[in-house]
Amino acid sequence: MAGAGRTQDPSRDCAASDPETAAGRHPAPEKAPMICSSSVSGIMENRDRRLAPGFPLTPLFQHQRMWLFSGLLAPLPVWGPHSLYRLSSQQGNRLSPCGPKPPGLHCAPGDSPFPPEHPRNVKSGNFSATTEFLLLGLSEDPQLQPLLFCLFLSMYLVSVFGNLLIILAIVCDSHLHTPMYFFLSNLSFVDICLTSTTIPKMLVNIQTQSKSISYPGCLTQICFVLTFAGLENGILVMMAFDRFVAICHPLRYKAIMNPKLCRLLVLLSFLISVLDALLHTLMALRLSFCTDLEIPHFFCELAHVLKLACSDIFINNILVYLVTSLLGVVPLSGIIISYTQIVSSVLKIPSAGGKYKAFSICGSHLIVVSLFYGTGFGVYLSSAATHSSRKSAIVSVMYTVVTPMMNPFIYSLRNKDMMGALRKLISRISASH
């Protein structure tokens, strides 16, 4: 019976392929060759037939038995699937069921000592192998690329120069050194940073006809987008609180909204945003990615990067929903509560002129809040409800590009003090030239 089992052993093919072994001469085993996967699997297949005839093992279990068999053969201090690799790489001792072979004669070409599903035989897409992602942009139509380039370049320039004018006007005019305009200047600075994080890379890709972004560059972009978006979220909450104190508690406004408190609120919002961005970025570092690394977006957004991961993203999703609830829903609820109190206080004003003035002060802020939160929540709701990533990418343009571009117009055209400060700044610049 043992002889019959050996005649069916595929390892005889390995022995027959060796001329010295076929002639009956066995040279001194200077270095025994690596165990061929076909030889070990053949031995285990015959053994399983003898032990359990009529009950074929599944391929996965066969590989598990093969690793157990290889571990038992190899005299290693540590047992496991990587024991054979340690044996061949560190000790240089190799065993073969085909008998000893001369040095340099190993397994047949393409015959790996590891099973096919072992990670060494599978192209991995983890951190060490992932070098770049592909940003597909808003459209892959070549005829639309020049139009997109001109459109986004003009929007970027308007956003940067418009917000820069707001900052310079507030700094140069001493009448605007109040908490409201202090928050507005910080908001303009954050808008410049947010647009500069996403749009320049898109413009470079369109101009060079390249869609690639490096793995570190993608994670860096995610970190900065989350930081500046979170900081803008916090500043909008501060502006709502400022309007609440100014309208509901006008006599205590200067005592409550002192410069020290304003700077402390901005610093606190910045620290929370940075911690949130670092948390998401570090959690993304642990992910492994498949061979499909195409992002249907014009920048690396966290939700799209998570969809490309091959590893388990359950913890990442839980973290996204938890942080979105804390840093999105809670601040928005605070803004709604503030404006509820503001509306109830304004309605108590007897004169129509006083009501109009109070609502005009809050109108600009309400428009910006509606644009920012409406588009922000629309991105996550659309990504969860539909599988069309291009639609969510178009919605993302609103809060990353359109809202920062519109803020200077919203806050300047509806504000007489800001318009006067801008005229003084422009006249001063033109006079200096």
Instruction: Look at the structure and name the CATH superfamily of the largest domain.
Output: Rhodopsin 7-helix transmembrane proteins
- The secondary-structure element order is HHHHHHEHHEHHHEHHHHH
Note the total helix count. 16
- In the CATH classification, which architecture of the largest domain applies? Up-down Bundle
Uncertain parts: 1-24, 28-128
User: Beta fraction of the residues?
Assistant: under 5%
Kindly state the number of beta strands: 3
User: For this entry, what is the oligomeric state of its chains?
Assistant: single chain
Structural class: mainly alpha
Shape: globular
CATH fold category name of the largest domain: Rhopdopsin 7-helix transmembrane proteins
Distance between the termini: 104 Å
Instruction: Kindly provide the radius of gyration, computed on alpha-carbon positions and rounded to a whole number of angstroms.
Output: 33 Å
Helix content: 55-70%
CATH C-level name of the largest domain: Mainly Alpha
Number of domains: 2
Report the average pLDDT across residues: 75
Condensed summary:
The chain is an all-alpha fold and 433 residues long. 68% of the residues lie in helices and 2% in strands.
Structure commentary:
- With 433 residues, the protein is mostly helical.
- The chain folds into two domains: 2-121, no CATH class; 132-432, Rhopdopsin 7-helix transmembrane proteins, CATH 1.20.1070.10.
- It is 68% helix and 2% strand.
- The chain is built from 16 helices and three strands.
- The protein has helices at 2-7, 11-16, 19-22, 37-51, 59-73, 83-91, 145-172, 179-208, 215-248, 253-256, 259-285, 302-307, 314-346, 352-385, 389-413, 416-432, and strands at 132-135, 212-214, 294-295.
- A three-stranded mixed β-sheet has the order 2-1-3.
- Helix 4 (37-51) packs across helix 5 (59-73), helix 7 (145-172) runs antiparallel to helix 8 and helix 13 packs antiparallel against helix 14.
- The chain starts with a helix and ends with a helix.
- Mean pLDDT is 75; it is low at 1-24 and 28-128.
